[in-house]
[FeFe] hydrogenase H-cluster radical SAM maturase HydE (Thermanaerosceptrum fracticalcis), 350 residues
Amino acid sequence: MRSIFIDTLAKAQAQEELNKDDLKVLLSADGEEASLLFKHADAVREKYLGKEVHLRGIIELTNYCKQNCHYCGLRRGNEQLSRYRLTYREILTTAEQAVALGYKTLVLQGGEDSYFSARDIYELVKEIKKMDVAVTLSLGEHDFDTYKLWREAGSDRYLIKHETADPHLYEHLRPGKRLKQRLQCQSWLKELGYELGSGCMVGLPGQTLDTLAEDLLLLKKMDVDMAGIGPFIPHPQTPLASAQQGTLEMTLKMVALARIIMPLVHLPATTALGTIHPEGREKALQAGANVVMPNVSPSEYRALYQIYPNKICIRDEPVHCRSCITGKIKALGRVVSTTRGHSPKGGITR
């Protein structure tokens, strides 16, 4: 088996295209083999993207959601969750504070909450763009005209993860939804000129190596600009409460392979990785990742944005988070970027 791994890794090092079987071989690596995979992914990151780590400040607008996804603590069926919505003024004040701390990209994220109209988000984006930052939206599925309106307001990027490339597993995890609907949204976003962010969870019940390999191939096919890959963490108020958690090593292998097959993609070292392991984010940065997305939301709301439980840093003030993550990045011999971190593939330059 080791010779198969070595031959497949050599294929990756020669920058040959990896097929599904190749990806499955590399995903099966462990111990020393996994270390070799991470080392190569880190070298690819260094070659194509250098030492810069881009920080994206996340503002969690609302924990209301009309969807009922089996894996998410924000699901509408979770009646034990105290709900909140930030006010217009709270959002803008939070954005101003994040900009003052040096963030060049702000991410407006929330559950699919119909309380915020398309025009509300339009006005928010217009105001935040006056602060001379890039704006990423992560607000779920909408129609073409809504995405178009938000693009006209100045939105630069949109993050909408496909979660799993297995259509049957997708339908099971997201009742009433179809993977093709998700991919249609991604196609519209690409058509409108957004930088597209997608991604998947690692360790979902029913997931296989075939599924994970398909996740990577789908990300490449969609030509994403960012790929958020994090471990599945079961939430106690969901149907998957008793499911097994995704592992650090398999998630790191997925991050590494994403870097290898998509050298120019932005890859976050996710907060979920930092939640399941005290050095999870640092390990991801050493396995191909080049982005960190600290939470800059008001501290009184952070514990209520419970996609998964026990999230790290929920009691830290934004200034502390900024200082802490900067220190971790520098300790790895990396540098915090001072740019907006647009896609190196040559997208928008706003």
